[in-house]
Amino acid sequence: MSTMNIVDTRTRQRVAEAAFVLLAQRGLTGELLRDAAERANCSLERAQVFFRRDEDLVLAFYARVAAELEARVSELPDGDLATRFRAAMEAKIELVAPHREALASLVATLLDPRHELGALNQQTEVIRSRVIGVFSAVVLGATDVRKASKPEMVRSLYAIHLALMLLWTQDRSPDAAATRTALDFVCDMLSLSSSLAWLPNLKKRLGQLELVAAQFVEPAPDAEQTQLSIAILKQLFRHRRLQSHAGTCAENPCEQCLAMHLPKVRRWIAAGEPIHFLLPSFPAKSPNTRKVLGRLPDMAEENALRFLENVCAELKQLYPPGARISICSDGRVFSDLVGVADEDVTNYAAEIKRMIKRVEAGSLDFFCMEDLFDVEDHVAMREQLILHYCDSLAAIEARIHAFAHHRELFNGIQRFLFEDRLAMETGKSRTRVRNDCKELAHGVIQRSDGWGRLLNDCFPMSLRLSIHPQGPHSEKIGMLLGEANDTWLTPWHGVTVKEGGSFRMMRRHEAEELGARVVERDGRPSYLEL
Q: How far apart are CA 80 and CA 197, in angstroms?
């Protein structure tokens, strides 16, 4: 990613941030772009490089809502279609509630298929395909939908969802009671359609609804592009880092594993461009010297970069334009929470950039938090991130208590923090350190989520990779960065050990207990060898 592209992305994002705040405060007033540019300390002419008029900012807002809805898919309850559809609709309404007045003023526009902001217009296709991916996950995870009817049901539910959202924007009844009554009616009909599917007349009516949806919502995707997209994802999934409850999806990815990623891959293929992935990672070395060899990247990071480049090469064999991975360093995002000095983050990032060039990883690029913020003060950057992109700590804690996959993520992060702090704060009891790390883990997750939200705003059609184990149906794809016995271990929390011509990651003290010796390169410790 060139410096100019980063500068452009940063400016665009400041204007969008300001616009989203203004939309929530006063709706769409007709001077949104001008006022957002002023609030972002940007000239109107400069802002118009990225957003021609107010409507373009609304499109950016649509894209954020789509990304937020994707993130809620892993929280959908198990069960029948009615249960899952209701949960998806309630999540959508919750997400857009702060912007209800702005959306209400856009109703005529949303209903006009000729307008570029229309819900069915070609300009909104990118966002529409993402939301349809969400409803694909709703249908594919339902316990009462026949396989043959799944594609048709997805399009029908998307159409119904649009109708409900348009009703909600105009609903002035207390607590939007009219919308909730309509949602109850739809869910009752979905339940009946399952139990009474054998009735000829009901089947006919459902078919008519699907015919309308197919014509005006989303035509059937190109079959050849779909098959290629599936092949690409399955190749990528060979390297997935999955949470413990993955089940049979670990070996045989199901339709639901693919659902939210397929529309994005198809989009890149249709454009004939390299598929773009985002990977928040490579923050800085752990401060715990029992785990790592030093503060700078070593063979562990080099092997990981080579691995990512090889993944892109594998995809290029299937799809000649190939793929590219943007490594979005999150070291600055939470360095103060994990006990890493900002100077160490700076030096680590500079060495990663040199390493990418040295290993000729042409499919990789690298940028840091400071590349997306105008302020130079790192504390101020983090404050802006929390203000514009992060949920409250109370909301983070509530999700951890409510959902098993959030608890698993929390436990993994808390474990790493505990290992590091225990080595750094030898004067504290284990209980005190563990309690401190609980609060720190909430903060790390809060900021990591905010960083991900910022990246989604900047790159709305890119696929999200993660270095943390993910659920098989997550909107993120967990990625292994090397062989290791611990699926949570990363290059910056361990060392790489050479044994019999191959490398695997482990903690430094574990390798040394096995008798491994340190090998230096260019005067610095690089890896261990047995």
A: 14
Radius of gyration (C-alpha) of the chain in whole angstroms:
24
CA 90, CA 78: separation in Å to the nearest integer? 15
Helix and strand counts by DSSP (H, E) for the chain? 22, 9
Q: How far is CA 515 from CA 355, 402, 518, in A?
A: 28, 44, 10
Question: For residues 443 and 198, which has the higher predicted lDDT (pLDDT)?
Answer: 443
Is-contact 363 322, C-beta < 8 A?
Answer: yes
Query: Given this model, what pLDDT does residue 13 score?
Result: 84
**φ/ψ bin of 505: left (φ > 0), alpha (ψ from -120 to 50), beta (otherwise):** beta
Q: Are strands 517-521 and 463-466 parallel, antiparallel or unpaired?
A: unpaired
Residue 524 host element (H or E): strand 524-529
SS3 78: coil
CA dist., res. 264 & res. 424, Å (int): 43
> What's the whole-number mean pLDDT along residues 268-289?
94
Q: Which stretches within 373-429 are classed as H helix?
A: 378-389, 393-402, 404-424
CA dist 475 → 66, 288, 407, 415, 482 (Å):
11, 32, 17, 24, 22
Residue 391 to residues 70, 95, 123, 329: CA-CA distances in angstroms? 16, 12, 30, 20
Secondary structure of 407-423 as H, E, C letters: HHHHHHHHHHHHHHHHH
Rounded (10°) angle between helices 378-389 and 331-338: 110
Q: Which residue has the tokens 């891959």?
A: 265
23, 62 Cβ separation under 8 angstroms: no
Nearest partner of 333 among 448, 199, 214, 411, judged by Cα: 448
Following DSSP, what letter does each residue of 149-199 receive, concatenated?
Answer: GHHHHHHHHHHHHHHHHHHHHH--SGGGHHHHHHHHHHHHHHHHHHHTTT-
pTM of the predicted protein model: 0.86
What's the pLDDT score for residue 2? Answer: 43
Count CB atoms within 10 A of the CB of residue 216: 14
248-281 in b/e form (b: 16+ CB < 10 A) is ebeeebebbbbbbbbbbbbbbbeeeebbebbbbb
CA dihedral (499, 501, 506, 511) in degrees, to 10, reads: 30
Rounded Cα distance, 499 and 448, in Å: 35
Strands 323-329, 275-281: pairing kind: parallel
Residue type, 17: E
